[in-house]
User: What shape does this take?
Amino acid sequence: MKYWFPTQHYSNDPLIQKSNTPTIQHSSGKDCGSPSQPRGPGRETRAFFISKNLKFAIENFKLQIVSSRLFLSPSAPNFHCVPAQILLSWDMTSQTLLPTRPNPCVALVTGGGRGIGRAIALAFAHEDLDVAVVSRSKEQIESVKIEIEALGRRAVAIPCDVSDRTSVNDAVVKVRETLGAITVLVNNAGIHLAKRFSSVTAAEWQNILAVNLSSIFYFTQAVLPDMEKANWGRIINMSSAAGRMGVPYAVPYNATKHGVIGFTRGLALDLARTGIAVNAICPGWVLTDMVRANAEGLAAKTGMTYENALESLVSTSPQKRFVEVEEIAHVAVILLSDLARSITGQEIGIDGGIVVA
Assistant: This one.
């Protein structure tokens, strides 16, 4: 068993007396002593402990690895054994609470029935998250639900019109009722429109804004109270390489994906002093149904074959290949880590070098 080794501690609380030689005991009552030099690798930290009636800070700790249960004695007799997962580290440099990922952890993935959304949902299940998949297509998300449950995790599939706020709010309520509080949100649902700007109608403009941008606003506002209560959360917004550069025949799509990045940056700053990180992933050409439809549209407009249209798209990548959906999911999993807490407000390109070419 490994322990927290304090060098000294202070408190204004009358229940805790100042002691220069505190000791640590685990639940068996064995005295672990007060070593002058902490053993093993560690870093300076402060920690919040939960006592029977109050929270209080113990300063100037050297962090080793927290055991499953511990308490201090005899200098802090009011300590009671507590689960280690409720101990919150306190970074001495930033003076900011650094909570850890809750367990169980519930993720909601929009557009989770196919392509990138499905890959992320399954990757999260492999990481021991319970997952809600949301989409207009009931058949697709029911299939993904079955795949998640086969991995031993809880899942729920909820048909939803992501462009309608009432539908979004209803879906979030159902997820909470079935799986619990939502602390991971992946705003992945999106549509594409390949047309010359002069032929885009007002209805088409409003529709792509509603699906690609307004849905992110709706879902984020709906689940944010869960994250704020947990003081931990991850919001991953799916933008695109088209959100970082211009793409011909795609002005509405360009506009919405640039908007996703702006939304991400602003919200990340709003939540910077919380345990909630907000990032955008910007894929390049991924061979999804959307990209296939894009190639079909390009072929229809130019007279080239569908195969040549696909080739013309992928040829813009310096790697000359399509990005795999599993590559996108892998980055999403990385962002779940507690060690990724400082990655926030970023636009993470997974595009084979398209933007920098």
Observations:
- The chain has two domains: 5-98, 106-350.
